[in-house]
């Protein structure tokens, strides 16, 4: 039994089981509003509030802070379900859960700053995101710069892009460099309502339209000395402990976001099954006569045709394999298995491809109705295609995996 922190609301579940019990209701609410927010590209405040009330935004909060201490296995389970309801909301939840999970593994946020985040969580939804990407996506040092003020604090200038939840973030962890002769890089923790922050509403993507991934501009934003985290010389040597922590962070991120994609694919499959069960084929002579009680897949519907059932079987087989891959690796990561951590990148690539193919197959099987905005299937297709913005490029992942394979082969040869 954990001791509830005074910083957390008393009506938010304190155990994983309590949060999971509220999950189906939240998923239904998200699904009911998803089309509206997608069409208008409006932020899903009601859905995020529902996540908060169900305790799902603090699922990975450590027991020492009064949280339920949700594992990666718990996280992928929840995000897979949220992805069925609304992928945009699921992405916002994922980034917040990842922040709390990182703090649970190794406290990086200074205690006074993290207490402020917990206080925000007491008053309502407290979304958090790490802002790394910049226009142009260049390599090397970030263009966002932190300069020393006369009082010793930092002053932040720059622009970040693809900032999920931008307009509603309680806190932003901004990756930036210092203007010192030997620049250091690190994260600067900034309140979402800090003076000098401007949201540039440029997010107009094909999918994930409600996630508000706008650009965020920092113009003279003050950051206290204690809110600069992990400053280290740019390009300098890093200890094995630091590298191991980074690999673990990436494994959590890869598997968490993979779970969201699988949720989208399951939502697409669910709609397709209902569609096929109701849709009569063009040629009724292909169907046998129906007598007695009707079960799904029987009668004058496309679901009664073997070719559709076979196609659904192919989809089901691939999604089961992808889900087992994610859940199995998540459990391995929770057990501290290095192999599971190292294979997460390959898993996300496989899941991304599998989920995308499944949704595309669903659209192909549905025909023209699958591309109509009257139905959610075309939204699922757009969301699954837009999810790749939060993953590294395929060639980067494949090149790294190729290097690992070559190194392993070379060692065996000698």
Automatic annotation (TrEMBL):
Give start and end of each Acyl-CoA dehydrogenase/oxidase C-terminal domain: 294-399
Query: What is this protein identified as?
Result: Acyl-CoA dehydrogenase family protein
Family recorded in the similarity comment: Belongs to the acyl-CoA dehydrogenase family.
Asked whether the UniProt record includes Oxidoreductase among its keywords, one would answer yes
For this UniProt record, give its keywords in alphabetical order, as a comma-separated list.
FAD, Flavoprotein, Oxidoreductase
Record-linked InterPro entries: Acyl-CoA_Oxase/DH_mid-dom, Acyl-CoA_Oxase/DH_mid-dom_sf, AcylCo_DH-like_C, AcylCo_DH/oxidase_C, AcylCoA_DH/ox_N, AcylCoA_DH/ox_N_sf, AcylCoA_DH/oxidase_NM_dom_sf
Query: Where in the numbering of this chain does the Acyl-CoA dehydrogenase/oxidase N-terminal domain appear?
Result: 30-94
The UniProt entry, under CDD domains, shows: ACAD
* Domain annotation Acyl-CoA oxidase/dehydrogenase middle: ranges: 133-221
For activity, the cofactor(s) needed are:
FAD
């Amino acid at each position: 039994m954990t001791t509830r922190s005074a910083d957390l609301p008393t009506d938010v579940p304190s155990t994983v089981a309590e949060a999971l019990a509220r999950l189906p209701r939240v998923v239904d609410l998200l699904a009911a509003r998803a089309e509206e927010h997608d069409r208008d590209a409006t932020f899903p405040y009601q859905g995020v509030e529902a996540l908060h009330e169900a305790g799902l935004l603090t699922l990975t909060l450590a027991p020492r802070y009064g949280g339920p201490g949700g594992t990666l296995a718990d996280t992928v389970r929840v995000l897979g379900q949220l992805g069925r309801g609304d992928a945009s909301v699921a992405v916002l939840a994922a980034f917040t859960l990842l922040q709390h999970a990182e703090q649970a593994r190794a406290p990086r946020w200074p205690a006074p700053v993290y207490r402020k985040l917990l206080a925000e969580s007491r008053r309502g939804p407290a979304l958090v995101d790490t802002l790394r990407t910049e226009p142009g996506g260049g390599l090397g040092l970030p263009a966002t710069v932190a300069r020393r003020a006369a009082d010793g604090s930092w002053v932040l200038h720059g622009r970040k892009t693809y900032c999920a939840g931008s307009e509603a973030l309680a806190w932003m962890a901004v990756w930036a460099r210092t203007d010192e002769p030997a620049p250091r890089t690190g994260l600067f923790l900034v309140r979402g309502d800090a003076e000098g922050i401007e949201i540039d509403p440029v997010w107009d993507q094909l999918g994930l339209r409600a996630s508000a991934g706008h650009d965020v501009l920092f113009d003279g934003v003050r950051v206290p000395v204690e809110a600069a985290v992990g400053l280290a010389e740019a390009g300098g040597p890093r200890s094995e402990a630091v590298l191991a922590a980074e690999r673990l962070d990436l494994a959590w991120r890869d598997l968490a976001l993979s779970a969201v994609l699988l949720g989208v694919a399951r939502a697409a499959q669910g709609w397709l099954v209902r569609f096929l069960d109701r849709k009569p084929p063009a040629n009724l002579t292909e169907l046998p006569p129906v007598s007695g009680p009707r079960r799904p897949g029987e009668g004058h519907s496309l679901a009664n045709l073997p070719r559709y059932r076979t196609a659904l079987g192919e989809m089901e087989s691939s999604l089961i394999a992808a889900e087992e891959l994610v859940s199995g690796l998540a459990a391995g990561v929770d057990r501290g298995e290095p192999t599971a951590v190292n294979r997460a990148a390959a898993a996300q690539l496989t899941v991304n491809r599998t989920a995308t193919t499944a949704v595309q197959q669903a659209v192909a099987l549905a025909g023209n109705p699958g591309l109509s905005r009257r139905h959610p299937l075309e939204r699922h297709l757009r969301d699954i295609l837009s999810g790749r913005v939060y993953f590294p490029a395929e060639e980067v992942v494949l090149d790294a995996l190729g290097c690992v394979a070559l190194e392993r082969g070379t060692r065996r040869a000698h």
